[in-house]
Amino acid sequence: MLIKQLVLQNFRFFKGEHVIELAPRKCQNNSNPRPIVLFGGLNGAGKTSILSAIRIALYGRLAFGSSTQQQEYVEELSALIHNGSTVGESPSEASIDA
Questions:
Q1: Among 29, 62, 70, 98, which residue has the fewest nearby CB atoms (within 10 Å)?
Q2: What gap in Å lies between CA 39 and CA 30, rounded to an integer?
Q3: Where are the beta strands (DSSP E) in the chain?
Q4: pLDDT of 32
Q5: Cα dihedral across residues 3, 5, 96, 84: positive or negative
Q6: Ranges of the chain whose pLDDT falls below 50
Q7: DSSP code of residue 25
Q8: From edge to edge, which strands make up the β-sheet containing 14-21?
Q9: Biggest alpha carbon distance in the chain?
Q10: pLDDT at 96
Q11: Residue 19, C-beta contacts closer than 8 angstroms, at least 6 positions apart
């Protein structure tokens, strides 16, 4: 399975809606293109947030461990909502779509 696009809304590092294109581009010089996507950036740029979002989108509650109960799952997800930089700015919900 290839994930072609990831849409994050108020998830961890990402405030508001962010669409991340993950579909690999075809190489003109290579007759055998490989579906590879690389993430790079400075510390705190959101690389781990992207990978966490993909893991949660694919595995749901199992992303937090096989013994995670429903209440624990809700608490874990609540902790992943983006925290605003000022009082009263914090969103109350987040979403991931892959």
A1: 29
A2: 21
A3: 5-11, 14-21, 95-97
A4: 62
A5: positive
A6: none
A7: P
A8: 14-21, 5-11, 95-97
A9: 54
A10: 82
A11: 5, 6, 7
